[in-house]
Write a structure and sequence with these properties.
Layout: E1 5-12, E2 15-18, E3 23-26, E4 30-37, E5 42-53, E6 58-68
Length: 71
C-alpha cells in the first residue's frame, strides 16, 4: 500500500473460449495488476493474456478500464 494507491496482482488461471468462428484456450500464467486509489472507489485494470486458437495461432489480448465500486 502506497500513499496514493494500493496495488494488487491477480493471476489468470486459464480456460477456454468458444464462438461461432473462433475457439481455443486461454493460457494460464498471465498476471494483471489492479490499482485502487486510496481517495476514491475507482480501480484501474490493466489485463494482458495469451490465447491460442484451435488452429495453433497465438492471440495477444490486452484491455484496460476502470472499475467503480460502492463504498
Amino acid at each position: 500500500k502506497g500513499p496514493f494507491a494500493t496495488r494488487s496482482v491477480f493471476h489468470i488461471g486459464g480456460g477456454r473460449f468458444e464462438g461461432p468462428r473462433l475457439s481455443g484456450i486461454v493460457h494460464s500464467g498471465s498476471d494483471y495488476p489492479m490499482t485502487a486509489r486510496n481517495d476514491t472507489t475507482t480501480v484501474a485494470l490493466d489485463v494482458r493474456s495469451v490465447w491460442q486458437a484451435d488452429n495453433g495461432d497465438l492471440i495477444y489480448v490486452y484491455y484496460f478500464g476502470r472499475l467503480v465500486t460502492t463504498p
